[in-house]
Amino acid sequence: MDLYEYQGKELFGRFGIPVSEGRLATTPAEARTAAEQLAGPIVVKAQVLTGGRGKAGGIKLAESPEDAERDAEEILGLDINGHVVRKLWIEQASEIAKEYYLSVTFDRGTKKALFMLTTEGGIEIEEVAENNPDALARLQVDPLEGFQPYQGRRLIYGAGIADPSEQKQILDIIGKLYTCFVETDAMLCEINPLIVTPEGEVRALDSKFTVDDNALYKHHDIAEMRDLEAYPPEERAAREKGVTYVKLDGEVGILGNGAGLVMSTLDVIEIISADPQVRSIVFNIFAGITRCDVVAQGILQALSQTKIEHPIVVRFDGTNAEEGRAILAEAAPPNLHVEATMLDAAKRVVELAG
Ligand code: GDP
Ligand code: MN
What we know:
37% of the residues lie in helices and 25% in strands. The chain is globular. The model has no long low-confidence stretch (mean pLDDT 92). By secondary structure, the protein is of the alpha+beta class. The strands form four sheets. Strands 1, 8, 9, 10, 11, 12 and 13 form a seven-stranded antiparallel sheet that branches. A hairpin with a 4-residue loop joins β8 and β9. The site of guanosine-5'-diphosphate (GDP) has 16 residues, from β4 and β11.
């Protein structure tokens, strides 16, 4: 689950990572009030679950509450990479002397937390990795050992940060970011830019924060941060039933392996067939622990409980695939087609969508 900048910053704040003060606003009038409360120059920031807001005109500096109101009017409703702005974060503006980059992600390859730090902040990290890879310092943290300050120092030297006061503050931030990352079950915590003010103060100016969906049951406060309005209605309906539906382009609905067969099959079929864009459905089942005969029974039960007009193609492979196909062949619902390979199933379901 991705968090908005303001939500990520709230979590940063809880772990002692310095952030600027701000307020949430959903209308220009609220933006004005927020600016009045904060006083001084402020920055109006679009809250959308995508990056590159600065370039897209989603971030504006304002000198007065009137300016903030005008900026809010311009930014609200803006489409940034397909995300429409409905919320603004009104923040006390910072003066920026330097822009660094600091992140920690979960590296699936090594199963360790991976820190990245560079003084080339404020731009996309992919760009730094490609054009200036030597500027990017990395550090892996063993989960059993935990984070050790000497590792943080090595990371800071690696990135070429020489100022002792910056070193001290960043070391502190790295340690807190690691605690934040572990304790929230995050997959990514990114600060870009991590700024140094003209007075030499280091602060997180942005946040990109992703929490592992499978750990949300442990974090009710974070789970509640999910903004259902930011999801397509089909995904929302699925979430309410405890299943996952990912809305994509195209006309073929796909159902893949998952447990809790009958009920979740029924729920997923209902959700897929309620999507007006879907014209045919493919069940793509590669059974390992799952057994195809049980899946076949699940499909038949689901079809007996809900009326589906869409053509359905089933591909079974793996455990008890033969038995599964035999069960479907015997019941032979008129709109159900069985194919032996994924390629055949794909061809058939596309034909049937046409
Ligand atoms: P992103 O474009 O979505 O990554 O949004 P950021 O929050 O990273 O902001 C983009 C850029 O806007 C930053 O790199 C800064 O240059 C600028 N910016 C954001 N907040 C402030 C601020 O408080 N003061 C100043 N001077 N610039 C800011
Ligand atoms: Mn940023």
